[in-house]
Amino acid sequence: MKIVALVLAGGEGTRLYPLTAEHAKPALPFANGYRICDFVLSNLINSNISTIYVLAQYKPESLMKHVQKAWSPWFSQSEGLIKVLLPQSNTLSGQFKGTADAVYQYLDLLQAHSPDLVAVFAADHIYRMDVRQMVDFHREREADVTVSALAVPVEKARSFGVLHAQADGRVGEFHEKPKHPPTIPGNPRSAYASMGNYLFDPQVLERVLLEARARGETDFGRDVLPRICKAERVYAYDFAENRVPGVQDYEERAYWRDVGTLAALAAAQQDATGVRPRFNLWNPRWPIHGRVQELEEEGEVSAPTWRGGRRDRHTDERVQTS
User: Fold this and answer.
1) What is the chain's mean pLDDT, rounded?
2) Residue 38 and residue 74: Cα distance in Å, rounded?
3) Could you check whether the bond before residue 18 is cis, i.e. omega within 30 degrees of 0?
């Protein structure tokens, strides 16, 4: 299955000022030499997704340099690619007006790849995820769109997009930052919060984006997803069901953090420290790549092993020992 991933890294990150005064939010240092964007990129790489475009906008220089230095060498001797894309100059003000508009601007690029599936993932969250398990869920249900979701306390759900899903995962409603979030059936204290990670059937994605363009809609969470839930087969993938190898008993299962504020970023960094961290950065079976310090110490970057256009993480020695 051919999957093209678009990583949305264009947010300004105003709540992280002054850290974002000179850097894009996804390019901010996290801990031990990593950047925030390294987590989503590692999840894609570890899931054998080898065609990745990073859509950047706000102060993109440091993000572009990091991708070039820490990530491009992974693809230099393989069939995969990673590339940073900026807003097209022929668009209004040369900007992405929202997440949906960012993908719309590169529909022609997606069409050129003729993918079987398009992954649209956020660049600014801390987590581990085997994306192939989400892909399997999507295919088993013959979904048009799948949204990764996590159960959160109702009082915290107001800060996220919230999905109202049936027992089989079929989404009937999507609300962006609702004042009164719909709860999970049978669990009145929790709601399904969107993680900002989507899988799209390519034809459905093209159609809904063309419709969005005609309607003046620019954002997936605010505009597109709330509109299409009734007409398309939209499903919620429960992130708590995702299983990543090497997670220790003392770690928090289904760890995911939106590090959109200074306090949230500091708390996540604290979660990754100590002898028994809630989120262990050093998992050799699902490694976080992108540490420039590590690459400099090694002197060079070993290219991953690819089979049929995919990296085989089971035979890649560097991945197993990094």
Assistant:
1) 88
2) 13
3) yes
